[in-house]
Amino acid sequence: MSVVDRPAARRPVAPTAAVALAYGVVLRQLLGRGRIIGLSALALIAPVSGWALGSADASLDDAVNLVAGIGLGLVLPVVALVFAGASIGDLREDKTLVYLWLRPIDRWPVVVGAALAAVTIAAPITIVPVVVAALLTGAGNGIVAGTLVATIVGLVGYVGVFTLFGVWLKRFIVWGLAYILIWEGFIAQAGAGVARVALRKYTRSILVDRTGADLDLADFPLAVGVIVPVVVAVVALAVASWRLGSQDVD
Amino acid sequence: MSGRGDAQIAERGFQRYEGRRSGVAGAVRSVAWESIRSTIGLGRPARYKIFPVIAVVIAYLPAIVFIGIAVLIPGDILEPEEVADYASYYGFIILAIVLFSALVAPEVLVSDRRNGMLAMYLSTPLHRGTYLAAKAIAVASTLGLVTLGPPLLLLVGYTVEGEGPDGIANWLLVLLRIMLAGVAISAPLAALSMAASSLTDRRAFAAIGIVLLILASPILAGALVEGAELSPNWRLLDVSTMPFELVFRIFAQPGNFPELATLPVVLVNVGWVAGGLAVVWWRYSRLVIAR
Amino acid sequence: MQFPGTRALDQLDVVVPSGVTGLVGANGAGKTTLISLTLGLLQPTSGSIRVLGRDPGRDGPELRALIGYGPERNVFPDDLRAYDYVRHLAEVKGLPRDEARSRASDSLYLVGLGEERFRALGTMSTGQRQRVKLAQAIAADPRLIVLDEPTDGLDPVQRDEMLSIIVQVNRSFGIDVVLSSHVLEEVERVCDQVVALSEGTLVAQGTLDELAGSAGGVELELVDIPDRPHSVAEVQRRLVGAGATVRRNGTVLSAGGLTDDELLDLAARAVADSGARLRRLGRHRRSLDDIFAEPVAAAPGQLGDEPPREPPYRSPVGAGGDS
Amino acid sequence: MSELPPPTLATAAVPIEPLTGMLVVDHVSKFFGSVVAVSDVTFAIDEGVTALLGPNGAGKSTLFRMLCGLTPPSRGAVSVLGADPRNDREVRGRISLVPQQDALFDHLSASDFLELAARGHGVVDHAGAAARALHVVDLADVGAKPVGQFSKGMRQRVKVAAALVNDPEVLILDEPLTGLDPVQRRHMIALFHRLGDEGRCVVVSSHVLDEVARIGSRVLVIAQGRLIARGDYRDLRELMDDRAHRIRVGCSDPRRLAAALVERGVAAGVSVDGHQVMVDTLDADAFGRSIADLAVELGVRLTEVHPLDDDLESVFRYLVEGR
């Protein structure tokens, strides 16, 4: 009895189905034990330092500084990099991308599915610990709500950008770290103009807007702070989809 | 045999080797040496030499500077404590040590699993235990390059300048302490970086893991002890400070955390070493080697 | 030999004499397990094994210094030079540094990679890397080399060259070879004797003549020729008429029922009388393929009737090249 | 064998009429920097099985990747079922590729992996298609096991199964036989044969030439990026009329037979060795028709007539020699 006896009836694949397909595969691919344990341990720093700060009843500015520094500046981008970068990056490195590429489906659902998988795994390891950290600082005054919005928007922005890194660059981890530590860490501090091209400025602006604390490099209005990262993410995924269609696949 | 390949047989034919074979000891020695060579980039393209060179420069520069000071400024004007003593020297080169420990173990352990060398090694007189021993020696001695070398250079420089410890007995005591200090720092970092390198098959992740562990643990310990005012013993969790704390105790100095007794500091370091090696052994004994 | 849940080898009695021995068997038949046992990397759950007169379990390290091994996987450290790869592994097998250095170059010359020996492995073709693997196996002057599918991934021209080198390693260097392969024609062409495994049991062992000897009957292949469209049918008719039983498969006729000599004469006469065009004629030989197609439980005369012979240990001094 | 330069064959003449076929490659070249991987290749393939042969590094995999659109040609155009696979989403549903590299989603089970492939192609009954595909490559009993734990042979069969779930019209198989043992290879070849007979265009590359010969006789031979031969390999052998056919003849009186062959003008050269005669003839047809007559006439018993160099492997070696 051969598979070819009854030709397989086929129907065009709906974009949503294609997104779900990519989402399923990438999600299980990212669920590597080592990675999740390692990054969860990293993310623990945020709540622990928040709790430490809280028990020493620090001021609002200290709390916002802590959340912005460790939460939005370290835990969020690094975790987003590892998962969003690997969403397509691992498939390229392992040479399994052909099993999603050589299909009668467009390129963008594959990219979107992969990004969604990255968000699904990164969210609990970024939003939860950072918001809990804000809670533990006990600084109140809307810091928790501000942190929640900032981390969600930040996650969307970072996942979008780093998915593009994973599609385009072979050593996406190194370039991603360079962006986080060097670009956002040093250069963006230099001037307002340059900072405009760093996601960190937008997440900090959201936090400052909700809490009223004063924080350098955080002077965008809430609307800009929320909308720009999302737009950046959409544009990044569009570029990633174009790139996925036009580059060589091993 | 109709095959008329282009394989020419050198007329000399094939010599038999009747000499002595150095057995497992020789195998461990050559694997350790080959790992050291490849980590510091010997016999490899230039780009592999960048990081090791940077690390070594960072590690030895302060020593050279201090010796320079001792040379240029006559002894009487300078009070001894202004010249950095050996124990606090490490404070200057932490970055080099961190950089090196994040670089060495992933290079030495992870690449063998990905490029088929591990399968080859296990078909030689080595087995998993002796292989890991060789790799541990390689990692520790490469780390020794930045943890043992600089203070020794310092000692030699000072001695030549007459600033060194007076009397042979004292000189040997300082030498012994430097050796112990080198081991106190290299052993835990080697064990922990090897553990990280056996948990993931991607070198970049192992390196990130080691760096984050070294950067994160002081923050964690600091938060627990200062923030939450828990007992100072929580400080012992700080994997990147405790080895240096032990160095102070080796040099009979109070160190940064005098409230901690020396014994717990020693024990925690031994604990990190044992724990790291246990993780490595657990992973490698369960590893299925694809022939 | 038992893995958790699977019996990899089952009451295996096999004696591998010196020379080039082919190890054949389906995937999962136990070849790799047998190789691991030989290298002392696995311990038998029951029974005993002796290699080169030593027990792999007890003195594994010493034995592994005397055995060259070429694994099946084609994975290499890309930026290591071929020369360093071979020299290093020779050192790990106990050779002193300068001996390892000279023998590394010699071995790479012997496998035809003299000029390329300082090139990085990553820049080499599959064929060249397979030869580096062989050079590494012979560099430390082993008594025995075990090669797991040495011609995997090679094209026919490269495969010929590799096989001729392997035979030379045995004939002129006096190193015994055990090679496993899935290409049976290769094994038939190169090996002195064959060990065939199936599901962990020994299916057949012996020299090629013993295994692939003639099996009775004659086979002839004709060619359809336009000017005599029914020549094949005519030859078949004549053969049947003369008392032979004939099976036809396209233009190939398999004749039986009579002695080989009678069949050969009948065939020649039938072809001549029908004016057919003969392409191939010969006694029907059982090939390893046939053994593989239907593994015979214990064909008479194949399983060692006589008690397993102690392998003639080729003392390093005495034997020399006796090809 | 005279060292004549390999024959320049019909491909040199550029076909004028537009190429038609399920798979058309029109003056395609591919450069990686200064390296010319594929240089000005033109051919068209229709249904049935076509073997793509060539030494390692000849450009086979690059050509295959261009056929599936995984990489664009630097010059010329590829069209599969009339469309460009790289940009036409719909045609990608009618093509299947078995890639050469051994990469799979190790964490998925075999049936999950096949179901993923089926859904990706929009197969309505994806579970059924996955189950059927598993059955065809006889992996039905290990469908639930994760692919990461499969042996090389099993992984290869999963890859082939994944290429069947969408009932493709064009199947491109890059060395599908590697890692399979003879029995598995036989099943796989029968499968390719059946797929070809069903009107699909199946292109297979492999180095195991005597197995490929069983799949089909139509070959494309590529060397150093150029298409150097195309057509049925037996015709190609006939086209090499400047290269004598070498035939081994065993008989009871080789000397007399050899003399008669030369005297009859059928053999260009003979050499007698023991009971065998090595015959070199430029006219294989004449030889085939007269060898039986001569043997009967002289009363000599023919024990063997065995052509040594008209199998696919010899054709391959002659074409690729020195390239």
Which helices and strands, and how do they pair?
The complex is a heterotetramer of chains A (250), B (291), C (323) and D (323).
Chain A: H1 15-30, H2 33-55, H3 60-94, H4 98-101, H5 107-137, H6 143-168, H7 172-190, H8 192-195, H9 199-211, H10 222-246
Chain B: H1 23-39, H2 50-72, H3 86-92, H4 94-114, H5 117-121, H6 128-147, H7 149-160, H8 168-199, H9 203-227, H10 242-250, H11 262-286
Helix pairs in contact in B: 1-4, 1-6, 2-4, 2-7, 3-10, 4-6, 4-8, 4-9, 6-8, 8-9, 8-10, 8-11, 10-11
Chain C: E1 2-3, E2 6-7, E3 20-25, H1 31-38, H2 60-66, E4 67-70, H3 82-92, H4 97-110, H5 126-139, E5 144-148, H6 156-171, E6 176-180, H7 184-190, E7 193-198, E8 201-207, H8 208-212, E9 214-223, H9 231-241, E10 245-249, E11 252-256, H10 260-274, E12 277-285, H11 288-293
Parallel strand pairs in C: 3-6, 3-7, 4-5, 5-6
Antiparallel strand pairs in C: 1-2, 7-8, 9-11, 9-12, 10-11
Q: Given the C-alpha coordinates, what overall shape of chain A results?
A: elongated
Instruction: Give the termini distance of chain D in whole angstroms.
Output: 17 Å
Strands side by side in the biggest sheet of chain D: 5-6-7-3-8-9
Strand count of chain D: 13
Alpha plus pi helix count of chain A: 10
Question: DSSP strand (E) fraction of chain A?
Answer: under 5%
Index terms:
heterotetramer; B: 291 residues; mainly alpha; globular; C: 323 residues; alpha/beta; six-stranded mixed sheet; four-stranded antiparallel sheet; elongated; disordered C terminus
Provide a brief overview of the structure:
By secondary structure, chain A is mostly helical. Chain A is built from ten helices and no strands. By secondary structure, chain D is α/β, with parallel strands linked by helices.
Model description:
The complex is a heterotetramer of chains A (250), B (291), C (323) and D (323). Chain A is built from 10 helices and no strands. With 250 residues, chain A is mainly alpha-helical. In chain C, strand 10 and strand 11 (252-256) form a beta hairpin. In chain C, helix 3 packs parallel to helix 5 (126-139) and helix 9 crosses helix 10 (260-274). A 6-stranded mixed β-sheet of chain D has the order 5-6-7-3-8-9, with helices on both faces. The chains are: A mainly alpha (250), B mainly alpha (291), C alpha/beta (323), D alpha/beta (323).
